[in-house]
Amino acid sequence: MRIGELAERAGTSARSLRYYEAHGLLEARRSTNGYRDYDEGDLRVVKEIRSLLDIGFGLEETRPFVECLRAGNDSGAVCPDSIAVYRHKLSELDGCIDRLQAVRDRLRGELDEAITQAG
């Protein structure tokens, strides 16, 4: 399939696909006329990338998942490097949640103090 069809089927743009290719995450084959040519495996890779980006992963963080799919696995999440990225991302999120909870607690304290003083 050509780049426009892949973009449509994956729910993204041709520009994004060229960006993924420039970063080594997508590998287009070239037809004799020079057009990019993709297959169903490439569609799976792009859908994996899009899915991970949608939940907050950075583009580079998708690389282990892409490599896992390219290695022939049914899922990009089953390889040790992918699992490590999941763990790292979860740790980052836990840290963000902790910081937000601390800010919320402080704000709640400030509000309670303001209410008491306004009294």
UniProtKB/TrEMBL annotation:
Domain annotation HTH merR-type: ranges: 1-68
Swiss-Prot/TrEMBL keywords: DNA-binding, Transcription, Transcription regulation
Highest taxon in the source lineage: Bacteria
Zinc listed as a keyword: no
Matches recorded under CDD domains: HTH_MerR-like_sg3
One family name in Pfam for this protein: MerR_1
Official protein name in the record: MerR family transcriptional regulator
The species this protein was found in: Rugosimonospora acidiphila
